[in-house]
Design goal:
The protein has 183 residues and is mostly helical. The chain has two domains: 93 residues, Arc Repressor Mutant, subunit A; 60 residues, no CATH class. The chain has a three-stranded antiparallel beta sheet. Strand 2 and strand 3 form a beta hairpin. Helix 5 packs parallel to helix 7. The radius of gyration is 19 Å and the shape is globular.
């Protein structure tokens, strides 16, 4: 798995054209920009890359801990589903297992049905922006500018605008990813 993780990290660094990133740059880059995986899978992948010493953390920044010169990255590289599943499996193995608790005598809870992800997340993202004091027109102008500049979906651009304005987008990232997948 090390070679595949190194290839994935190298492809990411080469694609971005720099070797120093914030955690959010890496997570959003792997999931939203490159569309290689979901946001939660990107978290697990970053964790695995850190454990393999592919990135070095200094404060809030992550620096690539390898040279891209010796790694041959295919032109249209995308990490295999197998790699992502291996990363998730190794994360689950290393997670401490909780001690078994005795089950209560009465267990008749019905889990709440999951709310389906809407195909268009922009109204929800707009409401979050307005609730956090961002002007609607300014929010849309910034989102459209990022969309044009990066060639990404408007919902993803809106996440960047929210993030750049200090709003935690962790909860929204997976929803937006699922929404974008439907398009």
């Amino acid at each position: 798995m090390e070679d595949s993780l190194a290839l994935c990290a190298s492809a990411f660094v080469r694609n971005k054209g720099k070797n120093v990133f914030t955690e959010n740059d890496i997570l959003m880059g792997l999931s939203m920009d490159l569309r290689w995986m979901t946001y939660s899978e990107a978290k697990a992948t970053l964790s695995a890359m850190m454990s393999e010493n592919l990135f070095e953390k200094s404060g809030d920044m992550y620096r690539a801990n390898f040279s891209n010169n010796g790694i041959d990255v295919p032109v249209a590289y995308k990490p295999s589903r197998t790699l992502i599943e291996e990363v998730l499996a190794s994360k689950n193995k290393s997670a401490p297992k909780p001690e078994p608790r005795p089950e209560p005598a009465v267990k008749e809870e019905v889990p709440a049905p999951e709310k389906p992800v809407p195909k268009d997340m922009m109204p929800e993202l707009m409401n979050i922006a307005v609730d956090n004091g961002i002007d609607r027109r300014e929010f849309m102008m910034q989102s459209n500018a990022i969309q044009r500049k990066l060639g990404i979906f408007i919902e993803v651009a809106a996440l960047y605008v929210l993030r750049d304005n200090g709003i935690d987008v962790t909860e929204l990232a997976d929803k937006v990813y699922e929404s974008v997948k439907l398009k």
